[in-house]
Amino acid sequence: MEIFGYPRRDGSFGIRNHLVIMAASACACETAKNIANNVHGAVAITHQHGCCQIGEDLQLSIDTLAGLGRNPNVGAVLIIALGCEGIRAGELAEKIASAGKPVQHLVIQEHGGTLRAAQEGIRIAGMMAQELSLLQKAAFPISEIILGLECGGSDPTSGLAANPVVGECSNILISKGGSSVLSETTEMIGAEHILARRAASKEIADRFLAMVKTMENRAFAMGHDLRGTQPTPGNIAGGITTIEEKSLGCIYKAGDKPLVGVVDFAGQVPKSPRGLYFMDTPGEDICSVTGMLAGGCQLVVFSTGLGTPTGHPIAPVIKLTGNDATFHKMMDNIDFNAGPVISGEKSIAEKGGELFDLVAAVCNGRLTKAEVLGHREFALYRIGHTF
């Protein structure tokens, strides 16, 4: 099966062709947004960090931003820095350029302040946008697609309908040679043994189980037990009673294919073998989506019971629900209704096939509702303190 997208110099294919204006730190965010707002087709990646971070926490932020810049959906990157932050713009640019991307960086302190820097940034970004407009789409096999799997604002219909439909969609993609990425380590707790049994090797199973245990221990170190703080208040209001119940519903997104590998947060998803991967992410949806996109996913399917508008600056996020009432209450934001599974009108296999068709259409350029409405939620995952 072929779809159409943008060929990149590293051999990957993007389903979008974004010009990213990336802030190196919180101090550069307003200038980055100003530039993006004045250049057609540009999107800003802004965040509240990048300075006064240390050690593994700083490195994780650098790796995440670099991974996003290397994502196949990104055609070119302009990095904006204040000049004195911990994330060095030049070094970040080099990491992104390793994927063959056009990358430039601009330092506010070296251009006379924010107004002059923005003026120069608009000039540079305008030239980049012109170059990107010349890139023609090409046919490529759907086996090049890496699909991110996410859920948020879950209720009982998530585990009964929406997540199994996502799992069926994932199965279809993997059967065609593609890959899917399951995430949210906190939402494996209580069901981790089930997924571990599907690991392609003992080494993969052991590493996966260690990730879940480490996540639990982080909470213990703070004096909390995740089994007492999950599900969230929204999950409880929706009808989920325990973290195990939530996790058992969550893993349905993984379908029934073998687990062929695990990767750290924002780690690159291998091109071989193709299949189902797990990424070590938090349960916070926007951070989790960011990690998968930094790892190379070109799009995300995101199930929700209570409803969410979440999108992302560089990738389409397809929203679906198994709750028919939620679909009709949030039609502005939700792309796909898996509710007919609950009512018995359609099977999981039928709706999974329909969702896969939607995934293919979005790969070929159809806009998701989050894209149409300009939802570009973004967050960095922090594992340390700011000093």
Sequence-ordered SSE layout with sheet pairings:
Blueprint: E1 2-7, E2 13-14, E3 18-23, H1 29-37, E4 42-45, H2 55-70, E5 74-81, H3 89-97, E6 103-107, H4 114-133, E7 138-141, E8 146-151, H5 156-175, E9 179-182, H6 192-196, H7 202-221, H8 226-229, H9 233-238, H10 243-250, E10 259-263, E11 276-279, H11 285-294, E12 299-303, E13 317-321, H12 324-329, E14 336-337, H13 339-343, H14 348-363, H15 369-372
Parallel strand pairs: 3-4, 3-5, 5-6, 8-9, 8-12, 9-11, 10-11, 12-13, 13-14
Antiparallel strand pairs: 1-2, 1-7
Helix pairs in contact: 1-4, 2-3, 2-11, 5-10, 5-14
Description:
With 387 residues, the chain is α/β, with parallel strands linked by helices. Helix content is 41%, strand content 17%. It is built from 15 helices and 14 strands. It has helices spanning 29-37, 55-70, 89-97, 114-133, 156-175, 192-196, 202-221, 226-229, 233-238, 243-250, 285-294, 324-329, 339-343, 348-363, 369-372; strands spanning 2-7, 13-14, 18-23, 42-45, 74-81, 103-107, 138-141, 146-151, 179-182, 259-263, 276-279, 299-303, 317-321, 336-337. The strands form three sheets. Strands 10-11-9-8-12-13-14 form a seven-stranded parallel beta sheet, sandwiched between helices. It has a four-stranded parallel beta sheet with strand order 4-3-5-6, sandwiched between helices. Helix 1 (29-37) packs across helix 4 (114-133) and helix 5 packs across helix 14. The model has no long low-confidence stretch (mean pLDDT 95).
